[in-house]
Amino acid sequence: MKNYQEKIEQLQSHFKTHNKYKEYVGHSSKVHSVGWSCDGKRLASGSFDKSVCVYTLERDRLNKEHTFKGHGGSVDQLCWHQTHPDLLSTASGDKSVRIWDTRVQKCVTTINTKGENINITWSPNGNSIAVGNKEDLVTFIDARSYKIEAEEQFHFEVNEISWNNTSDLFFLTNGQGCVHILSYPDLKRQHILKAHPGTCICIEFDPTGKYFATGSADALVSLWDINELACKRVFTRMDWPVRTISFSYDGQLLASASEDLIIDIGFVETGDKIADISVEAATFTVSWHPSLYLLAYACDDKDSYDRKRDAGSLKVWGFPSD
């Protein structure tokens, strides 16, 4: 415990001097999803305005590089390839998935799917993309041929989907507070975890492969041991349904966000609070940088001049406070 105490104090003092955020406006409507490329050089945002913005990170600032257009509906979720820093996939309400390549700054393929897509995940080995729609149908796409490999209709409310770090298990969180674990690629049910009394909203795997975390409508975040499927601890500082969570690159920090007016940053091994970020509105998405303590996030902010309009901005927190 003592060595954890030192680490906790170290991290707390780091964020006392690195607690500045910068805001970037790239969209005309609310930002639903943000994510960093695997090399950390780019940050992408997907918005209700049907576009995807890509920024490059240079020292202590982001520069807007490109806006991808083409989707005919809201871009609800995006994810980058986990080892190829130029490839980005997006799920949209226009019943399609698009793959974008930042080297050529265009859409390299469009995959038509059966329904309005709300979530997407790329397997860590890069071979497959899974996308879930509003009717709880999950479509599996071969990421090399861009052909649909399988479709699985679930008879419960599917919220977020994700592979484990070795890409051989597929996880779904559902409306009954459970996490369903399927083998991949044969999609045979391995386990159902009763994780929360309320709807299980989001799931995230830690980069070290030890844990995964789930966020729920009961305002709790629970941390699970991957091998034992046992709950290790619960983060209880939120008052509202937890919409989005993210582990830092070293697996030490877990950021959680909701309609609370703070984003909570906790120490994974003990649950201690390391820092929090004040926000002015519900937060839809958070994402830690893959090698730095920088957190990207987007809230339901309104334009400061016209309160009826969405701000369309994203923020990055963790810059040195000069």
From TrEMBL:
Keyword NADP: no
Record-linked Pfam families: Beta-prop_THOC3 (PF25174)
GO terms (BP aspect): mRNA export from nucleus
One CC-aspect GO term: THO complex part of transcription export complex
Placement of WD repeats on the sequence: 24-65, 68-110, 193-234
Keyword terms of this UniProt record: Repeat, WD repeat
Record family assignment: Belongs to the THOC3 family.
Protein's UniProt name: THO complex subunit 3
Organism of this sequence: Phyllotreta striolata (Striped flea beetle)
